[in-house]
Write a structure and sequence with these properties.
Elements (H helix, E strand, L loop, with lengths): L6 H6 L7 E5 L8 E4 L9 E6 L11 H18 L11 E5 L13 E6 L16 H18 L1
Antiparallel strand pairs: 1-2, 2-3, 3-5, 4-5
């Protein structure tokens, strides 16, 4: 697969719709990254984090781009964590990468899934029925709470 037929590259270019949760433009030292709700979320608070540049998997991504993705994952996880009196954030997160074995889109992506203490098992066979909008809203709410405290 090349950049020209990659749906994630289309999202980065603004040529495909996505519910973008957070974006980092990159800069002198770090490549850009993008976080958005997946088409088929597995739980409320499920988001994908990708490098803006096309790299197919964990096995071919340059260290700098992987570092930027993981720094973005860590930042989102910290911001999504439940804090404060409102309690609308998450207790923790799961971080998953398919590494080509089950990767549905051949563009490196890391799944970040907000988790609450009373959630059912995530994998396999979770009991969630979640829409893309539900996943986006759950992450956005947690991040909005973080922004309000900030």
């Amino acid at each position: 697969m090349t950049e020209t037929d990659c749906v994630f590259c289309d999202i980065v270019a603004g040529e495909a719709d996505a519910l973008v949760v957070d974006e980092r433009d990159g800069g002198d030292r770090r490549p850009g990254t993008l976080a958005f709700a997946p088409l088929y979320p597995v739980a409320p608070g499920h988001v994908l984090v990708i490098p803006k540049a096309h790299h197919e998997s964990l096995f071919d991504v340059p260290e700098e781009a992987l570092g930027a993705v993981m720094a973005h994952v860590q930042s989102l996880a910290r911001r999504m964590r439940r804090e404060g009196p409102d309690g609308r954030g998450f207790d923790g997160v799961n971080v998953l990468n398919d590494s080509t074995a089950y990767q549905s889109v051949p563009h490196l992506h890391v799944h970040l899934v907000g988790r609450r203490e009373d959630d059912p098992d995530l994998l396999p066979g979770a009991d969630y029925e979640v829409s893309k909008r539900d996943a986006y809203d759950a992450v956005s709410t947690a991040l909005d709470d973080d922004r309000a405290r900030g």
